[in-house]
Amino acid sequence: MTAKTADFLLDVHTEPFPARFVAPALEQLKARSAERLAGRIEHGEIAAYGTLRHLVLTVKAVAAKGSDKTERFKGPKEQAWRTPDGAYTPAAEGFARKHGLAAGDLCAEGGILYADVRTKGCGAAALFEMMIPELLKSLQFPKSMIWEASGFKFGRPIRAITALYGEKIVPVALAGLKSGRAVYGHPSHSKVSMPLKTPADHIKILREEMVLADPVERREYLLRQLAAAAQSAGGRPEWDEELVDETVFMTEHPTPVVGRLRPEHMPLPAALLKMVMQKQLKFFPVVGADGALQPAFIGVRDGLSSGNALVREGYQRVLEARFNDAAFFFGRDASATLASRLSSLERVTYQKALGSVAQKASRVAALAGRLGSELSRIVPVDEAVVAGAAKLVYADLVTDVVKEFPELQGHMGGVYARRDGLGDALAACVEQFYFPVGAGTALPSSTEACVVSLAGKLDSIAGCFAAGMIPTGSADPYALRRQALGVVRILLEKGLAVDLEAAVSQAVALQPISAAEPLKLAAQLLDFIWGRAASLFEEEGVRIDEVRSVRLGGLKDLSGARRRLDALRAVRRDPAFEPLAAAFKRASNILKQSKGLADAVIPDRTKLRHWSEIALYDALVEVEAAADQRLKHGDYEGALKILVAVKPHLDRFFDNVMVMIDDEGLKSQRLAVLGKLVRAFTRVADLSEIQASAP
Amino acid sequence: MKSFQEIVLTLQDFWSREGCAIVQPYDLEKGAGTFNPATFFGALTSTPTRAAYVEPSRRPADGRYGDNPNRLGKYYQFQVILKPVPAGITDLYRKSLRALGLDLKEHDLRWIEDDWESPTLGAAGVGWEVWLDGMEVTQFTYFQQMGSMPLSPVSVEITYGLERLAMYLQKKDDVYDLDYGGGLTYGDLHKKQEREFSRYNFETADTALLSRHFNDWETEGVRLVGLGDPLPAYDCVVRASHLFNTLEARGAISVTERAHYIGRIRSLARKVMELYIETRTPKASAAEAA
């Protein structure tokens, strides 16, 4: 390795990128340059940073010269391309030529001819010169464009390329531009470019020119400034991760500007005011310690000026115009009750194959009614609230506010239901119909709201599957995965004993298109929902074999499945457990081989012969009765611990008897004993799914 | 403080110094400055183009009887079309704002992703809306496609919303209060027009007559394409397009009919574009000579 090294820097200066383009482009820049440099030259740390106008790549301590490399290419068998007198055939000469060698340079090893091609490492600058155009071409953006005569494709027009190796410019010609050492600062603050002497100065020069080039630094700066600004307005900024991320890549020097909300706008629903601020203007609302909206907002400008007076005035004026629009729509919505809007839902198509939104609403109402009445046997459910709310959940889709702000669906329904005097319980069901809206966000609060929300989600999933709109890979246009996950979270976190197998077949039966094979469709739906449950369990650290072991009956009682998992994980720590699982798997395989021969046979103690099978039978009868007592109280762990006690009996059984014997009568008895064993365990977990832990 | 007309004069002067031909508005009703042949045909071929102009634009459905301080059924765009695109185009745009009297250090200028698409022209572009202290004042588009054909070289189109810009510069909350110049307000000149045209577009337009005329101009356009004259045929596209907008504002077009109307305009526009390219490219004239 040579001692002489220097840093490399590439700064691609562009017209403003959409915020969402930048972070993925920086990741690609880093990963793809690492791939391209690997094995070709010695180098230190690779980093990428940037803004909406700069994509920057740095490589520390790059050796002056690339590594020499020998690559071996396999040729034909020696005897095929070499005549007995030792001469090479023209084919062999061709093979050598292809790799820039003479036939005599070919190397024979084990009867095979090889071409060993040595490449000398080229200089670092030359290497980067070759790499840059190809690296930039390889970047992928959500959308690319062309802007100049060469037709180079990129996310936004490139306006300058700065490329240095040490103090030397790496010459690159691309998209009508030639690389140089000029660096461009914030366009509102610096009109001329600054010359970059060495890569190490880059961040410092940009900072002096009002650009915080490192996204991590920019984000910290933004958060600090936001908190201080909100404090001056008597609160804290409403946390909005998405808006923070967007702002980091929408500004090069973020500066919060605080403005006030006018008192006449405060009576509008807080969610509506927030939506206008966040979505239409990208402002941060200010909330108090209790989460209540304060009469203040924070806009984040790009750049800096003393006092920002003109910016504040402009923000204020735009916000008021938008609030006036929102107030106009909200006022218009007062002209009709939610109930009176139901007839308009008949004219809104939900899905071509699945009818109007009005039809969907009546399916949801029917399903919610059934779920509610079944649950009411276990927990108190106000079925009148369920029925009343389920009819109205989609009525807000035809209000002016929701047409203008689709994200407020549900929320406005709740506001209007309260205004219509329908009561808090019913309004909450309408408001929380789409809950949970994201990972880790709130669930519907009451049992009634859960029931209505579950019905809506199950109907969407069943309908889309019936119509063949099944999510594939990353494509899930109807957000069915999110809805299935919502179903799973509601049942698990609220501990609701809803039998999903029954609910899914009801949802399928309610669809306007009758499935060719309704049973197959229901099974497919259940697998889909189980998939969400499984991924949730795995995120919590449950092993995949454990998840599989509770699949049977898992959707009949999802909370039960979680308790069964907890039991399994607790008992698994016992060293005797995994050998038991192995013996259990053997039993289960034998049953599978027997193809249901003894499924209907009840073991009869008097027909058993060998002491070990009698002992196993007796042990099973005893532990099953004891386990039953525990299961009655939902104590899966206690039950499983008791069941595990059959282990020595099972071992002795397998040591002493053969199951698949010619004596059909005895064979079916032995199978029946194993069947009893498998059934006893499967109520907690199917141990045949358990994989031995790595030693 | 600049009056509305001074804003127009400043922009004209600015872009004239940048080498643009200041062309005049096209004398037909249209929804946007993109319909002016300087842009529509200007973007199509490889011939360099630099033009700027004020374009009166009509959006019948946006009229509010003169009651809404922000919405108009007829308004003015200031349009710039440049091909090839100068390398410093965003700096040039900033310079034009400075010419209007803005000190950009004192303002927040943001570039918000906003791609443009015109289904009737089969046209698409990539670009931004430009926010001046939160107010959208300009649409900035790199055309990528016209008549569903990729463009090369591409043009950039800068569309200043003159009323928005003037409201911002004059600090007015109501468009009708703008100082127009010549001692008049924008309202003096436009309020009655907004009221009467809203009535016409929403209530009194004779829909049977309009749809008859739509059919007529479509037929005439197809005939003119057959005769090989793209410019008169293009007028038929512009007329049919405005008739469609009026019919839609009047509520005379159902959802399914809508797609059909748009398809008919697009198909005619495509024929006109193909004919234009055929008659204007050097290769075609060489073939004619032979």
Describe what this molecule looks like in 3D.
The complex is a heterodimer of chains A (695) and B (290). Chain A is α+β, with helices and mostly antiparallel strands and 695 residues long. The radius of gyration of chain A is 35 Å and the shape is flat. In chain A, α12 crosses α15 (424-431). Chain A folds into five domains: 5-66 and 123-208, ACT domain (Alpha-Beta Plaits); 69-119, no CATH class; 215-333, no CATH class; 340-541, Orthogonal Bundle (Hypothetical protein af1432); 566-689, Orthogonal Bundle (Isoleucyl-tRNA Synthetase, Domain 1), CATH 1.10.730. In chain A, the strands form six sheets. A five-stranded antiparallel β-sheet of chain A has the order 2-3-1-7-8, covered by helices on one side. A four-stranded antiparallel β-sheet of chain A has the order 13-15-16-14, with helices on both faces. Chain A has a three-stranded antiparallel β-sheet with strand order 4-6-5. In chain A, β2 (46-50) and β3 (54-63) form a beta hairpin. Chain B has helices at residues 4-17, 37-40, 89-99, 162-170, 186-204, 207-227, 230-249, 255-280, 282-289, and strands spanning 21-22, 49-58, 74-83, 109-113, 116-118, 123-132, 135-146, 149-150, 156-161, 179-181, 184-185. In chain B, strands 1, 2, 3, 4, 5, 6, 7, 8 and 9 form a nine-stranded mixed β-sheet that branches. Chain B has a two-stranded antiparallel sheet with strand order 10-11. Chain B folds into two domains: 4-202, 2-Layer Sandwich (BirA Bifunctional Protein, domain 2); 207-283, Class II aaRS and biotin synthetases, domain 2 (Methane Monooxygenase Hydroxylase, Chain G, domain 1, Up-down Bundle), CATH 1.20.58.180. Chain B is globular, with a radius of gyration of 20 Å. The longest helix of chain B has 26 residues, at 255-280. In chain B, α6 (207-227) runs antiparallel to α7 and α7 (230-249) runs antiparallel to α8. Chain B is an alpha+beta fold. Chains A and B meet through β16 and α9 of A and α3, β4, β6 and β7 of B.
